Amino acid sequence: MKRIVITALAPFIFLSAAAERTVSAAQRPEVSARGAVLISADTGEIVFSANFSEKLPMASTTKIMTTLLCLESGDLYDEFVVDSDAIHVEGSSMGLVEGDTVTKYALCVGMLLPSGNDAANACAVKLAGSLENFAVMMNDKAKELGLSHTYFVTPSGLEGEGHGSSAYDMAMLAREALRNETFREICSSENMEIEFGAPPYKRWLKNTNKLLSMYDGVYGVKTGFTDEAGRCLVSACERDGKDLICVTLNDRDDWNDHMAMYDYGFETAVNVDIPVPDGYTVRLAGSENDTLSVSPESGSVTVTSMSADTDSFGFEVVAPPFVYAPVKKGDAVAQLRLTFKGREVRTIPLYADEDAEYASHAEKKSGPVNNIITKLRDFFNERNWR
Predict the structure, then answer these.
(1) What total number of domains does the chain contain?
(2) What is the pLDDT of residue 377?
(3) 46 CB contacts (<8 Å, ≥6 apart)?
(4) CATH code where residue 67 lies
């Protein structure tokens, strides 16, 4: 269905500001990474950075993109036989052999936990027919997400000519991937039991991300290593309502550097309560009224930010062109999108404030637009074309 965006008339003005702002006297950590960044998972603001925009090899953290595309492709639990050529690849493996039957879900676990290059290649061939075609899909997605310092050549992160990303781009990629509940569930698990084989049988896969058990609140995301890229790590951590994402590229001391950056970030970042304006309406069809009043469940939203200033936050109502009657009070009929400088932070359901009964002949009390909509709806209903 086509969707329209209605900008709410609320006192929120978008202001330009520096990407990184210091709001406390916390001691900035010194890290050994060639590229590093710490961002708010909510707003994407930079909390800490060191050479965050340089394009560098990122090894198996590449599999964040491969897994995201796999999860978004659907049919996660349909079984298929892996491509024999695809799984013959060097490096880390989930243990695939010729003739194995797998699911896309199992491949995602195989990519995020033991960092299987065989899983990444099998996924690429399943989704795109070849590694080269899949690289096109990866780069199209990177462009869609605005990752301007990123270029993908391989699905696994093994070196290819020009393959690389920046610490900031990888943080923003992780931010997007973590919005997928299945991705978050997998990458936050220290080990998982899945089925694959010929015939499939159950086995356990272990996560290479030791930070999950080293630092309280860590819930992902992905490790990586090659001789060219060095040690690479993308992690995410939530504590006391603050949600942060950390990336280091080419870092010989990544575990300790991430913990030091989180220590700094949790002292520096703040929880901000954003008041949600009221008085929203959506266009209504098939009822006596032309509009329907809607409201969020809560009057405020708490986000992790670098400033308690709310001027850079705004709200947009996202709804179909028309909400069709009948509607019951409390039905979720639209969404309220919270943005930070135009970037989506999260969406909040909007619920009907009242019942809206269906009126088959609402001409007497409805406006001309609703009149036409109602007649069209009746016309199609009579012919069972709904």
Answers:
(1) 2
(2) 53
(3) 19, 20, 37, 38, 39, 52, 168, 306
(4) 3.40.710.10
